[in-house]
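Posting here for the record, re: pyridoxal-5'-phosphate.
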Amino acid sequence: MAHVFRPSANIERLKESATIAVGAKARALKAQGRDIIDMGVGEPDFDTPAFIRQAASEAVEKGATRYTNTQGIPPLLDAIAADANKLIRPGSTPITAAEVVVSNGSKQSLYNACVCLFGPGDEVLVPTPSWTSYYEMLELARCVAIPVFGDVERSLKVTAQQLADASTARTRGVMLNSPSNPTGAVYSADELTEILDLAAERAWWVLSDEIYQRISYDAPAASVLQLTTNRDNLIIINGVAKAYAMTGWRIGWAIAPLAVAKAMTAFQSHATSNAAAVSQHAALAALSNTELTEPAIRHMVAEFHKRRDAVLAVLAQFPSVKFVYPAGAFYIYVDVHGYKGADDPGTLFADELIETENVAVVPGGAFLTPGWIRASYAMKQSVAEEGVRRIARHLVAGRREKQ
Ligand code: PLP
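Prediction output follows.
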């Protein structure tokens, strides 16, 4: 008798990552020979800086081929703590290596934190739109993600008041992400401080995903470490993927209160053990050679900045096309509300766009806002300009068609 797979109760409601699915579709069409501009991926197009690749090769030759301790190799834990200590507010207790847990990408750090902090019956506030995986990770942790929708006048960011209004006696935490994926919006220090104050008062956990913190154009993006001396309820998530162009190495980390760091380490010890030894050495090279890494980061951010400005210049030619002002990260979030009267205009628009204009974007439904689409401009400037031009052209033509 054929053995039938029925999803377990754990994954019954799990959805595949929409961003990864768009990437797969774009790759499949490219393989058929179509000239696709893939604005779906959230990944820098730069290569990992050469000295980091070199350090990794040397580490392998010297024997970095075995298990490491679960939490991460001690010099990397020290380097992460030292890096974070550059940001801490005067008067804060310095971060120690014991508070750091290294994982297979910041995605796993976030997942570890969700599983260890939240469980059945708990509610966690998710400023929305936000990165698609938060909702699913919280679902896997068997708690309830409560989307809190931001207003368009505030670049879809949420206020402390909106979070307070959405909270209940079961609220246990809030997910923060500034600069934001998918919108590129950056929270000001004041906006974040109000949220931190509320969370401290209500004894909520704050998971601050700062993976795009270095990628901010008009002003530096604040880290929560700069805003408070109280880390009792803070989990800071970061990694090397975006700022260091190291997505494939899969190194992220959490900085958490000692008891939480221990729980996350215990959980990880059963789930995946340690992050790859070679990748930990690569991340160590990235963090400890600041004289080489800082210019590399500055160069990459300057390039993203030029592309951001170029994309804005293209959009300025289409005044009817609205979008969230992209102050950081490398995404542009375009408003497609009302497109051809569809219930899910983002999905219809994205489907048509790839078919007729050969441009892949992510429908906003993936971020619980179906009236939008996300396009990444982490690619050659001329290609990003062309991609955004086609998006705008298609949107304007589609609206005209409907009238
Ligand atoms: N957090 C956000 C907001 C992201 O956009 C991403 C990747 O797209 C991640 C975390 C995961 O990054 P990593 O490659 O470190 O797992």
